[in-house]
Prior knowledge:
The complex is a heterodimer. Chain A is α/β, with parallel strands linked by helices.
Amino acid sequence: MKRIDAIAIAAEEAEQLEALLVCNIGYPSRELFAVHDRLGNFYMLGSMGMASSIGLGLALARPERRVIVLDGDGSVLMNLGTLATIANYGPENYLLVILDNCSYGSTGCQPTCTAMRTDLASAASGVGVEDVREVSGPQELREALNGHGVVLAKVEPGNADVPIIPLSPDEIIARFMERCAPRGPRS
Amino acid sequence: MNKIDPSLAVYRGLRRAGIDFAASVPCVNLKELLCLVGSDPGIIHIPVTREEEGVGICAGAWMADRRPALLMQNSGLGNSINALASLDLLYRIPLLMIVSQRGSRGETISGQIPMGRLTEPLLRTMDITVLTPQPAEAEATLSRAWALASGRRTPVAVLLDIDFWRGD
């Protein structure tokens, strides 16, 4: 499964579920913007490692809204403690999807530790996440997006040829927060 | 003259500021405050593993209409600078930082000295407003600190040193 295809599936499901979608820095956000821009997408432009935490804050603050985070293996490795916090405080409306391509895709595809001995699904289970699923194909991913906890989706390394997001940080957050609002329009 | 309980003063300040969401990494000087915050049903309290994670969680909570505070020791400022800069300052996300300032007068642990010296200069370099109230002013200062953070959409840091927690 190509990462951009996994991202397209996640965005489609998020739309169906009226979920807020937080997307990791770099090419993943660019790919999401290219395949399925929606007002309920939060595109990270900095703070590598923070996608899972931003999504957790959203989900805790707004328990009636589903929150899906699209993160990467490199970013989760940079904020590994997030898995322990999710295990202990992650609510039912929160799902972390780790798109694991075993590489730092936005910086030249250097291998991460998941290219070698590290298994982030075991890591998530090891720190106490109860609901951990591993998926490799589109249909499995689609089904897993209804759940909570952590989903590890293996994807191929490499980036799609997509442009830089033409939105300012102010624009990204303003339209996203409109969709976060308690009685905001459908996302 | 009766001494003011510094932890209670900070807690009252959080309440007066309308803080309803807190992430924390402990410090011995935050011990009582963390108990007060943790037992308040009006505040969602998430103990985190690292200060940077707290910055991220608080950012998400603010986007969903909460008023977040991060309770931390100043040694954790170094752990959170990238998130403060390229998340909070970039997207203009407010945050009330309640920082136990170690490495100040009365410090007994040498390892606290380097970040003790660097904390305020680092915050000022980042254009983050620093407030240093005495216990008697803490409640009002925290309320003002959130108003400032929210009005300007930026993090604001309240540094509370060793003397503060002694109630001096």
